[in-house]
Structure formats: C-alpha cells, structure tokens
Here is the input.
Amino acid sequence: MPSPAETELRIQDSPEYADDVPGPESLARVRYAARLARSTGLPILVAGGKPYGGKRSEGEAMARALQEDFQVPVRWIESESRTTAENAARAFTVLQPEKRTRVIVVTSAVHMRRSELAFRKAGFDVIAAPSVYASRGEPRLIDWLPSSGGLAATRAALWELIGIAWYRLRGAA
Here is the structure.
C-alpha cells in the first residue's frame, strides 16, 4: 500500500503533462512557498528525491511548477533525499557554506512537527510555515460518521506519529 507521501506529493507520468508533477498536497505547499518567496524576497530550496521511483524527483517536479506555473525562481534543488531527515541534512549541506542556517520550512501542517525536528537536528534555526490544514468551520453531526476523508486524515496523522517515534528512536530528530 502506498504511503500518504507517495500518493499526495507527486503524480508519476501525469498524462496531461507527460511528466512527473507535484500531487495535490505538494502543489498546495508549492503555492504557499511561492507566496512566501514573493512577500519576503528570499530564495527557494526545494528538496525531495524519488523514493517511489518515477522520472523526475519531487524536488525537480516542485522546482518546475514554481518556475513555470508560479513564475518564481528556485535557487537550489536537492533531488537525492528519500526521507524528511535526509531532506534536512542535504539542505544543510547546500546552505551552510553560504551561512544560511535560518530557514522557513514549508510543509503540510500534519507533517510540520517531524519536519521541524529533522531540520533542527540538521543544524537549522527553523521558522515553521505550515500549510494544507485539515480543518474547516464548525463541526457538523455528519462529521462523526465514517468517511474516506476521515480515514485518510487518520492515516496521515498515524504516519506522522510513527515517523516521529522512528526518528527519535534512530536519533534522527
């Protein structure tokens, strides 16, 4: 069974683009990163390899979307990492020679805690910029009924809790 990251971060060989493209969650992150880059003037580093195969890495797919769809330049592309901890460590290797150790980390709200832990462990001073919140207005009675959306949200939350425990066990956070 594919992980939440596999199905939400990248669509492999998307027919309309004939290429690997950011998935729905990744595209929401990219959109927020573009907004932050425009408002701050800060350069962007995108990170992510091909942990599930494909033609283009997650980093390359995000960079292409930022540049072509949002007209926002990407200064650095890290395209080898397979995990969030590797994203952080490789990003530090790229940015530390320029003394860029304070970073704004854009990721989904459910993934922010693990990302913060990994980026701090790598040596960064982290400013959290969560996006893709799973919240909405007032709860309704129907919200208490089982649904595929509820199952997906539960799966993503459990994935993150297990990930945090695994990182702490391995000393990656």
Q: What stands out?
A: The chain has a mean pLDDT of 91.
